[in-house]
Amino acid sequence: MTSSSLEETLTRVHHEEWARVVATLARRFGDLDVAEEAAAEAFAAAVERWPTDGIPPHPGGWLTTTATRRAIDRLRRESRRDAKHQAAQMLYADSPPERTGPVEDDRLRLVFTCAHPALAMEARAALTLRLIGGLTVPEIAAAFLVQERAMAQRITRAKAKIRAAHIPYRVPSSADISERLSGVLAVVYLVFNEGYLASGGQDALRVDLSDEAIRLGRLLHEVLPEEGEVAGLLALMLLTDARRAARVSASGELVTLEEQDRAAWDRALIAEGHALVRERLAAVAAGGGRPGRYQLLAAISAVHTNAPSARDTDWSQVVVNYDQLVAVDPSPVVRLNRAVAVAELDGPSVGLAEVERLADVLDSYHAFHVARAELLRRVGRSAEAHTAYGRAIALSGNPAEVAHLTRRQGQLTRG
Amino acid sequence: MPRYLLSVFGAAEQTEFGGYGSPEEMVQAFADTGAFNDRLEREGVLVFVDGLQPAVTATTVDGQGERPVILDGPYLETKEHLGGFWVVDVADLDIALGLAGDASRACRGRVEVRPFHTQDTVSDLHRS
Fold it and tell me: Where are the domains of chain B?
C-alpha cells in the first residue's frame, strides 16, 4: 500500500470510528477524560503500527480493543481509584450496555451528554467537535477564533462539570428527546454555519467545519431516522453545501445565489438533499406533525436548488415556506429573510417596507444592511444604498463578503 | 448517589407578605412547597429542607485572626439572599434539574442547583 493511500485510510477510519470508540469507552468507564485519552492513544498506536503490520480486518474493533486496554492500563497505572472502585469499573467494563433510553447507540448518548443544556452553548459546541468529531483542541480553537489555551480550559471546565455535577451519560427519555434534540441540532448548525460563512479570520469558507457538521448530521440521522428535524437539518446542510463551489469567485469574492454558476453546484448532494425533503413532505402529509424550522429552511433551499436559473425560482413557494417559518420562529432574522423573498415576489418597494420595519432590532446585524442596500439600489435610492453598503461592510467579518459588498457599492451611480 | 443543594434566592427587602405579591399567593406558595417536600420524602430523596430567616437576621464571624470578629449582617450585601434550600440525594443531574423545576414552581423563585463533593470529586482534588 502506498503511503498516501494509507494516510487516506487512516483519515477515513478516524472519521468513521472516532466517535464510536470514544462513545464505547465513555460507557464502559463512565469517564469522558479516560475515553478521550484512550481513544487518542489507540489512534496514535494505529498510525505507528498499521504501516508495518497492515490494516486490521476490522479497524474499528482493533481501535476499540486497543483503547480499552490502554484505558485499563492507565487506570491501573495511575491508581486513580481505590482497589474496590477499580474492580467495579472492570466489572462494568465487561457488562452489557445499560438500557436507559429509546435508542441504545453509544454515540447518541455521547451527543446528548456533550450537548447537555446545563453546559454553556460554546462549551457544547466545543465538546461535540472534540468528542464526537475528533477534532483536536487547536483545530477547535482555530474554528472559533479563540486562543488554544482558552479553548483547552473551556473543554476541561465542561468535562469537570459533567463529572462533578453527574451529568448523566444517556439518551433522554422520549418525552425530553425533542426538547434536548433542538439543542443538539443548534450545535451542529452552529458548526456548519461557522464553516459556511466564517465570521472572522482569513478564510471565507471553513470546509473542514462544514464537512464535520454534515458528518454529525448524517450520524444523527442514522441513529434517529424518525426525527423530522434531524432529517431537515441534514437536508438543509446538504443543499447549502452543494452550492459551496459556486459561492466564492476565483478572485475570492462572495457570489450571491442569483449570480452563482448553477452548473458548479454539486448534483449528488442536491439529489440527496431533495430526497430527504421529499421524504419529510410525505411524512408531514401523512400526518407526521408540523414541520419545524430546519425542515422549512430545507424546503426553501430545495426550491432554490430546483430552479434551473435564478429567474425561474418559484418565489411564491419560498414565501409560503417563510410564512410557516415565521409562525414557528418569529425572530427578526427570519422576518428579514421573508422580506427579501417578498421583494422578489411583490417587488422591491414592498420588500423594502418590510425590511425597514426591522431597523431598530437589526441595526447591528450585517445581513440587515446588505438586504436594505440591495433593495434601496433596486428602487433607485442610490445615495442611501451607498450608506447602507458601508454599514454592511463595517459589520461583516468575512473577507469574501466584504469584497462582494465593496464591488456592489462601487457599482452604484451616486444619486 | 450524588447530593445536590437546591437553593432559592429571594429579595433581601421583604414585603409585608414575605416577598410574595399577596397573602393568598404566600399561603398558596407555602402549601405548594409543603406538598413538594412531602413528595421528596415519599420518594426517599430528601436529605434536608428548610427556609431561612431574612438576611438582616444574619451575623458574620471572622475567626481567622487572633480573636473572632463579629459583624452584624450577611457576608455579602446583595439584592438577593439565600431564602431557603433543599438537600436531595438523587442519581444524576437530570433528576436534580427536574426537581429544581418543580421546586421553583412551588416556591415561586429561581432555584440554583449545585452538586456536593462526592467521593470521586474529592479523590480528584487529592490527585491534582
Answer: 3-127
